[in-house]
Hints:
The complex is a heterodimer.
Chain A: H1 3-13, H2 40-53, H3 55-58, H4 74-77, H5 83-91, H6 106-124, H7 139-147, H8 165-168, H9 171-179, E1 194-198, E2 204-212, E3 216-220, E4 226-230, E5 237-241, H10 245-250, H11 256-267
Antiparallel strand pairs in A: 1-2, 1-5, 2-3, 3-4
Chain B: H1 3-14, E1 50-51, E2 64-71, E3 80-83, E4 108-110, E5 113-118, E6 121-126, E7 132-139, E8 152-154, E9 157-161, E10 166-171, E11 177-182, E12 197-199, E13 202-205, E14 217-221, E15 228-233, H2 249-253, E16 264-266, E17 271-275, E18 297-302, E19 308-313, E20 329-335, E21 338-346, E22 351-356, E23 362-367, E24 375-378, E25 384-386, E26 397-399, E27 413-415, E28 420-434, E29 447-463, E30 468-474, E31 492-494, E32 498-503, E33 507-511, E34 518-523, E35 533-537, E36 540-547, E37 550-556
Parallel strand pairs in B: 1-31, 3-7
Antiparallel strand pairs in B: 2-37, 4-5, 5-6, 6-7, 8-9, 9-10, 10-11, 12-13, 13-14, 14-15, 16-17, 17-18, 18-19, 20-21, 21-22, 22-23, 24-25, 26-28, 27-28, 28-29, 29-30, 31-32, 32-33, 33-34, 35-36, 36-37
Amino acid sequence: MSTSIRLTIALAVLGLVATGGASTAQQQERPNAVPSRADTETIDRGRDMFRANCGFCHGIDARGAQGPDLARSLAVLNDDQGKELGAFLKSGVPERGMPAFPMLTPENARDISAFLHTVVDQARRQRPMDPNAIVVGDPKAGEAYFNGAGRCNTCHSPTGDFKGIGAKYDPATLQDRMVNPRGRGAKTPPPPIMVKVTLPNGRTSSGRLVGITDFYVTLTDQTGVRQTFPRDNEVPKVEVNDPLQAHLDMLLKYTDADMHNLTAFLVGLK
Amino acid sequence: MTLRTIAILVAAAALSVLVQAQTQLDPALFGKPPVDAWPTYHGDYSGRHYSTLNQINQSNVKHLTLSWLYRANTNTPGAIAGGAIPEAVAFRLGPGALAGGLLKATPLAVDGVLYMSAPDHAWAIDAYSGREIWHFFWRTKGGDHIGNRGVGMYGGWLYFETPDGYVVSLDAATGKERWHKQIVDVRSEYFTTVAPVIIKNHVILGMGGDALDVPGWLESRDPDTGEIQWKWYTTPRPGEPGAATWPDAYAMEHGGGMPWTPVTYDPQLNLIYVPTGNPNPVYRGDARKGSNLYTASIVALNADTGKMVWYFQSSPHDTHDWDATQVPILFDATFNGQRRKLLAQASRNGIFFLLDRTTGQNLLSVPYIESANWFKGFDDHGQPVPNPDKEASKGGALVSPNNGGGQNWTPPTYDPDTGLIYMNAAQGYEIHYKWDVDGPTFGSAGHAARAVGGLDTSLRAFDPLTGKAKWIHKYQGTEWNPPRPELLGGLLSTAGRLVFAGAPGNFIVAYDPATGRQLWHAGLTAPMSNTPITYMLNGRQQLVVAAGDTLYNFTLE
């Protein structure tokens, strides 16, 4: 197990590895509280009835035309089996242009509600991102940046370590890994972070960094022995040498265009 | 029951408090620095998380030691059960489970009892021994069990919010349910986590939920009956001030802006300071062109009427989930030669704001982290001007902070002795992508943020009057994947010349506020997950903090 993987696992155990995706602080988990539960026939009847009576204003898919998008309607969301929705439809909201449907039966309301809940579910389950569709940059400008301002060629070469890299990763992962080469999806482990510890008595220990906090630093020395040193306000002296530091430094420097151009260049290295 | 009746009852009960089983909270405690009690989420109304206690101080903090720990009991047999339905809905995060195993709530400490909560659960704990006095369990209908930030207390009554959208009032002495009221409907994917704040005879409540583009509001309820006293919607309705910042009625009615963290309050001005959440749809601004008031804003409301007095928008037309739900910290200081009543916020978007809290006038706007790159500058009101090039795009926009923000919901602390704000600040990055989806923009559809990385997370001592850091303690090992600020917990400062903060690696640490030197630390079993509190119990200063599913009580040896 590589140092970086161990570090990643250690961080994961501590809950420190930030997760990707569209999570938000107020809603990291999105339990499907109210899944659709109607049978297909009910939904089909509801769809037909909706299209005939409501589609002109709300669109045949219920996602809005001159009337509002019903995937976000509280009257739909807060409805069970058409009970609340039926009452709403029977009276309408004439002052806002929503007509009343006094002839509506409870069965009609249940069917329409069943259909509309599938609309809500579909609106929520949008198709995921296509990682191949993100290439928008200019490969020539990317190559110039690679060999020029980006100084990527200090460590990397299109004919050496990057030979065929465009076939190794999809474009989005390639771009991710440019920003964070210690992030997810590595096909080859990134080089380890090295550390040197100098004790007050002058004795030193060096090796691969296993983990570091304010109070402990752990390394694996050249002989494979794991050593942990307590830390107290910068004692002992700890020097960390990360061979990928340049990527961290780039975060404050490169523009989105630089990033897009580099990705376009690297994607072409099949 | 009026406030005066309560006060008389409390005064009458004060002499006999030791022989009475019934705990009564003196509402006068709310407006003062917490000493013998920690009576409300922020300790007092100011949001400073500062204690005047100094028994634990720089000279003896190294002798701080564990006196007990309490592991959250989620066994439902034996609990006092309540709920709006006879049986709890089978649910993967509960019942019987804490959200992610985390105690996020700030406990209240009143008359030798700690009142603690988690999604669907509340406990009374003997502050001397750490033994459970009672356990209340709520039969949930579902909802997002992401967290619960604590209980509010009024006289002998407790209030807490549930993931399925209710506020429940309990008898503090017995844990028995008094009543419950529905705030929001879980079928619209609302959920509630906020610690209720009691202001006079108002129970102030908010909600969360940004999955389905639903409206948000703050509400006040009667502490005795639970009936609604007022509601303030976080977005205007057609014809109201601010309506011009939305394209149409539909957009504003589905514009989100959930107030999902507790408010602060100035009793002299009688103003509640409400930090509001992100607009909806969350990342795609095309369906809501305009600045989208009053989402991602700090809003001052009259406590008795709920009417808005002023607003300041921390993130106009937010397209990055920049909730402004960070603590509006209240303190008074001399700014540019003039004594002022101030409000400070280190916002999720990486920018620090200093306002006059009487008028809302902006005095200072400055990034408090170096990495924030999503805005072009500031407008005439000191509000940031978003850079449209940093909105999600097909090729990806590299944005800092990341979704966790420079700050998140966990409170920083303001230490009046140093005049500095202390906070754990993150410099994360992520790439925001967007792509076409079927139908109109909806929730978070058509957006992804990838490649979360970043520079670091650090503890910062920040001068709110100059906008400059006095010192920065960088946490080594947080490069590449800086922890979200809320995963380190909140902060506490004391007159013992100490700042307590969580550090990566599951530590709670005491610092010298002047220099950042570390004076004491303890290893916990999980990252610190709430905000530490301190108070006097029988002549001894206590420090109480939660990590994961466990509450830790520290005292001097």
